[in-house]
């Protein structure tokens, strides 16, 4: 029987609490693609929205293994196919030994004469000589992968495609993937929405060989279905109030919802499956216990240092501070993070909304608009320096929109900044 952590697995996939969003036809579309003569899919959605889980669940249901390759591992087309061949246990080289046998004939005369004859004894001798040649063949990249696919079933999943640095490298990889798809090798490539890339945009003539499958952000009801799927395996029942609270704090991410559910089980003392012959135990938590759930979940999220640096800002000296009703006055960085935390669980914040919330938060004096926009710009820089290549925050100065593209970072900001004890939360108190 599964443990609570196995049921609510906050990794990339949990078979016990996976939810098919049938109304969006996401799973059915991928299944149809993988059965087609050109089995290629471009899966596009926000970070941590379940793109990888979608592929892994489809693979599990069809009994086909997944070969997962991550963007940061790929520096060239050759590297991609070498990683795939490694997963297929293909040898680095194949040795071929070729043998050639030649025969030669000769006549020898014996030194013994048979008695009673005056004739020498002659005999024929045939010598066989064997010579050999060894040749080593290196891997043949895509061609060898296609050969393997003729006798073995597998799905290639390229995750975090946006981490591949060079656009030219991306294009050459997609061209090679096109060849794989044409030879009926199942390929799925996951893209994050805000990067605005798909396979078709990188290589236009691949359009009729693949299907783009959008994976949208999760609704509250869809997040609550994760609880419904998982709790039956543990013989427990989360209260509706608890489900609502968990879904509200999951910032539209199924992975964070899994983490919150696992933390709720930990706080409630549920470690494994209860006796199935008993009535399900109803799980409800007090406000203090629910706060512990959020804290435990946040402990697993590794972007706390980004929030800490944003709280510190770029320059500690000479900054203006403002009264927001707390014990001490704070600067515009803290006010901006508080404005993000006090809004809805969205990842997109327009400058006018941030400015309005900051003004409502201040007791008297308020920061100037230029100060707030400068903080938004600096927050993007801080995140880039702390986690290069991940693009956690984007500030569009033309559209005046701040986007937090990473759900874990948004969760941490909302959890840490929701009251005046943010400094204690940063210290894990």
Description:
The chain has 3 domains: 22-88 and 141-214, Rossmann fold; 220-299, Helicase, Ruva Protein, domain 3; 304-426, no CATH class. It is globular. The longest helix is centred in the last third of the chain and has 18 residues, at 369-386. 42% of the residues lie in helices and 18% in strands. The chain is built from 17 helices and 12 strands. It is α/β, with parallel strands linked by helices. The protein has helices at residues 4-7, 26-35, 51-62, 77-87, 142-149, 167-182, 199-202, 220-234, 240-249, 254-268, 287-299, 304-312, 332-341, 351-361, 369-386, 407-416, 422-426, and strands at residues 40-45, 66-70, 93-109, 122-138, 155-159, 187-192, 210-214, 236-238, 281-283, 348-350, 393-396, 401-404.
Kindly, what is the distance between the CA atoms of the first and last residues, rounded to a whole number of angstroms? 35 Å
Helix content: 40-55%
Overall structural class, as computed from helix and strand content, comes to: alpha/beta
CATH topology of the largest domain: Rossmann fold
CATH class of the largest domain: Alpha Beta
Q: List the uncertain runs.
A: 105-128
Oligomer: single chain
- What spatial form do the alpha-carbon principal axes imply? globular
Query: Kindly state the mean pLDDT as a whole number?
Result: 86
Strand proportion, as a percent range, falls in: 15-25%
CATH architecture of the largest domain: 3-Layer(aba) Sandwich
Number of helices: 17
Task: Give the neighbour order of strands across the main sheet.
Answer: 2-5-6-1-7
Give the name of the CATH superfamily of the largest domain: P-loop containing nucleotide triphosphate hydrolases
The biggest sheet amounts to: 5 strands, parallel
Cα-atom Rg, whole angstroms?
32 Å
Q: How many domain regions?
A: 3
Order of helices and strands: HHEHEHEEHEHEHEHEHHEHHHEHHEEHH
| Total beta strand runs | 12
